[in-house]
Amino acid sequence: MRTSLLGLTSGLVLLAGFLGAAPQTDPPADETAAEEKPARVMVIPLSDDEDYMVDQVQAEFIIAALERAEKENFSRVILEIDTFGGYVFSAREMTEKLLRSKVPTTAFVKTKAISAGAFVAWACDEIVMRPLTTMGDAQVIMQTAQGIEAAPEKSVSVYRDDWEKASSTKNRPFAVARGFFDIDREILQVGTETDFEFTTRKDYDRLPEAERKPILNVLCEKGELLTMHAKEAEGYGLVTIHEDMEAYLATLGFTMDQVVEVDMETNQTILRYLGMNPWIFLVLTLIGLNGLYMELKAPGFGIPGLTAVVCFTVVFGARYFLGTADTFEMALFVIGLLLCLVEIFILPGFGVAGISGLVCVFGALVLASLPDFGGLPEYDWQWEMVSDAATPVLGSFVLSIVVFITIVPLVIKIPAAKRNLLPNEMTADKGFIIDTVPEHDNLIGRQGMARGDLRPTGKMALDDGRLLDVVSDGGFIADGAEVEIFSVDGNRIIVRQRAAGAV
Predict the structure, then answer these.
(1) What is the Cα 454 distance to its own chain's centre?
(2) 166 domain-assigned
(3) Residue 397 lies inside a defined structural domain of this protein
(4) Nearest to residue 382, comparing CAs of 367, 397, 364?
(5) Which of 91, 237, 239, 310 is the most buried (most CB within 10 A)?
(6) Dist CA 212 CA 215 (whole Å)
(7) Which residues contact residue 306 at a Cβ distance below 8 angstroms, ignoring those fewer than 6 apart?
(8) For residue 445, what are the domain limits?
(9) What are the beta bridge partners of residue 43?
């Protein structure tokens, strides 16, 4: 419709010129652009959403919304912020997108913009705060055995550079930003009441005496982190205050009718819940491991196997969309299962394959809960994250063993479960006959040679040429090894490998 109107207008202008009418002047380029812009404002929530904080699901949701705003030519994007913070790597992804956004952006602090919330707000074109709201306290911290500690300098250096880049791009004082995240800096306001700037005490002291402007105020002392309420931030010229969203939109010439509110899809909300809740992870892993144990005990891919597949699909799927798991972790998990199967069915005896398989399964589950460090963990806070991720995995392994030993045998005895998990009873009236070893044939002590590998069952050749079905008491025995019968139990002939040089 817009194209048709523009075409009609152009035709009328040309016709007027042809008839000698007064020449028409083209409207300024900015007015034309304003006419072509859709009068729509996108509002995106960045909130803790009850128990959750800034995470990868939220980062991907906001990045996708910003891309949509650019594609659909929205006039402005408003991030409605109400958060205590969250993961630094997720906040960094959002700030990188905001710094490159082609659509004007506003951080609207609804209640609080703390830590990662302040970081994201600083990357927007404009910061608006409601009365009695707060912003700041953005130090990078980590959880250690001793409690909450500041991250080491090498980890903070990239974060500091991001703040400096955002300050430069959005024309904001980097010294104030340092007050948010650098506890070792004293931040000063210097100059006059009408013409002031911000600097650190260290930079101020470096200046020659003649170049030092009068100190108006100390924003924060060394050893403190800067957190500002709305009135204070407005006084420093960092933000504007508006009573609510409607009042702010009115200053831009918009109404609430022109607002398009976006929110997470249901699947993103579910993924956030499944991926970020350690108890859900522990329970799913526990059920999945026991499903695998039961399927191996009674092969045939039944309900236990299907349950395990569903549980581990949810575990890895949720973490894949959270951004902490990829094809490597999934492949490592499958390799671990294959190695366990090799140990059980091909190379019996708890050896290299079985241990390697368990290590791979354990490692895959831990790695699926961790962000990409760009290599092996180097810093204490990274090792703390590994420890935090390994704890629920280790707990699920231990609990699964307890459940398998105590509860699974009881489940298997249930008639309904017994019909599905165990073979039918073999009785004489159905034609089954037990082949027993004759009592008068004393085999104990007889020696011979293994014919084929004993895994642990196989055949043994006696010195008189007879072949017997035997069972090893010590796991795998290789073909050709010398063996000796040491026990006979009904129809089971149990052998052990003779030591080299034994007589």
Answers:
(1) 46
(2) yes
(3) yes
(4) 367
(5) 91
(6) 9
(7) 291
(8) 429-497
(9) 78, 261
Angstrom distance (rounded) from CA 494 to CA 136: 74
Query: Which residues are CB-contacts of 148 (< 8 A; sequence separation ≥ 6)?
Result: 141, 142
Three-class SS state of 322 = helix
Q: Give the whole-angstrom CA distance, residue 69 versus residue 72.
A: 5
Tokens linked to 444: 């104990």
Contact 204, 170 (CB under 8 A): no
Q: Which residues contact 487 (CB under 8 A, 6 or more apart)?
A: 444, 473, 493, 494
| DSSP summary character for residue 475 | S
What is 364-382 written as a DSSP string? Answer: HHHHTTS---SSS--SHHH
Predicted pLDDT of residue 106: 97
Question: Please, what is the average pLDDT of the chain?
Answer: 78
In a domain, 5, yes or no: no
Quickly tell me which residue has 């072509």 as its tokens. Answer: 36
Q: Would you put residue 48 in left (φ > 0), alpha (ψ -120 to 50) or beta?
A: alpha
CB 295 within 8 A of CB 305: yes
Percent helix, percent strand, percent coil in the chain, to nearest 5: 50, 20, 35
CA 122 to chain centre: 24
Q: What is the identity of the amino acid at 329?
A: E
Residue type, 9: T
Q: Give 15's pLDDT tier (boundaries 50, 70, 90).
A: very low
Task: Please report which residue ranges of 150-265 form alpha helices under DSSP H.
Answer: 153-169, 174-181, 201-206, 230-235, 245-252
230 in the same domain as 117:
yes
Share of the chain above pLDDT 70, in %: 71
Same domain, 322 and 403: yes
Beta-strand runs (E) in 2-140: 41-47, 76-83, 105-114, 126-129, 134-136
Strands 126-129 and 134-136: unpaired
How far apart are the C-alpha atoms of 108 and 384, rounded to whole Å?
A: 34
The answer to whether residues 477 and 497 touch, using CB atoms and an 8 Å cutoff, is: yes
Q: 160-215: per-residue pLDDT in tens? A: 999 999 999 999 999 999 999 999 999 999 999 999 999 999 999 999 999 999 99
Instruction: Say which range, 243-247, 408-412, 431-435, has the weakest mean pLDDT.
Output: 431-435
112 with 209: CB under 8 angstroms? no
- CATH number at 492 reads 2.40.50.140
Tokens of 70: 């650019």
- Same domain assignment for residues 58 and 92: yes
- Distance between CA 330 and CA 315 in Å, rounded? 10
pTM: predicted TM-score of the whole model, two decimal places: 0.60
